[in-house]
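job 3f2a | input accepted
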Amino acid sequence: MVAVQTDKLKPGKILAAEVRDINGRLLLAKGSEIGQNHIRIFKIWGVSEVTIEGPARSGDKLDPELNPEVFEQVTQTAKNTFRHTDLEHPLVKKIFDLAVRFRCENNLIDTEIQVNIEAPETEAGNHLPDFRERLGKRKIVLPEIPSVVFELNEVIANPMSSADHIAQVVNRSPSLTALLLKIVNSSFYGFPSKIDKVSHAVTLIGTREISGLALGISILSIFKNIPKEMIDMYSFLKHSLACGILSRILAAQKNFGHTEQLFVSGLLHDLGRLILYLYFTEESLNILSHARKNHNLLYQEEQDYLGADHALVGKELMEQWKLPLILENNVLYHHKPSEAQQTIPATIVHLADIIVNSLGIGSSGEKFVPPLDTKAWESLELPLSNFDNVIGQAMHQFYSLESILQL
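job 3f2a | predicted structure (407 res):
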């Protein structure tokens, strides 16, 4: 058996393992002969690699010769990035090895986004015990589009609604309309002709996916004007999108029924950090400065300085917005999923965050890979061998959808 990238797959090969899409649906059974149409379907559903019968041959799998100097440099950088993790743990070691190879192949030698942080640093130590009270009193402005999202959810929940009904709601928001049409016409789906009607896009993407994309992207859109002195927002959005995609793929690996909920959870897991940057700017500058000076994890600095971290801030904001409880669960516990009421989905977002940080795809301000919650990982029961394909699929989908971040 040999793993072959979809782009290099030839018709006539025999599958050595079944192929499933991100929702766990069977695309082609083990032992089937692969046709040209199957290859097209694999690409549409983001399957980046399949396993075929036969011995490995040169050219079957992309495995470029790594430059020894680059490999050594990337390895040393990665070790620093993983300094708060246990590299002896089998999963962490697996992610580390995959991250080094990914960074080498994509020339990501130094992925840290440099921002100028100028703040009169004060000592950490919970200087703001009234932070949660202040957060509750601070008026966080709801974005305009979620009112459309809530109406969209009501229409989708109605079994009598058609694609035209859903399109009527979407069309009330020009930015959401543009977003959905851009997504459906991206290389992620690979449709042969241009889709120019929202009703057609709804039919092709799916109603649940429409709702999830609308909710996540519309909420993040209100933070686009955060000063670059705080965070590079394009980098933040890249990190968020990659976490959403990875969360959805990991959910499919566990046959978790609501993969769109995991996509939104991954997309919004660091929402609280944007609230801190926007509404508590001076405190955030102190936290960033202290964390970078002392090589500490950012969420631990938040806890020390504020008495709360960005996960709690995100959860409380979602509660104010009356978003689904499962999203609150996944966001609040994405650094400590073993404490969550629903452990499995929180662990999926936790793993997605760890992997994306390790690969160096964007940044929410954190420069280190967060430590693994080993108890939560054990409850997930995913084979280590799955992570090669998971990362491959995720990056294929990420690069196909990255253009939506320009909207």
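job 3f2a | The longest helix spans residues 233-253.
job 3f2a | closed
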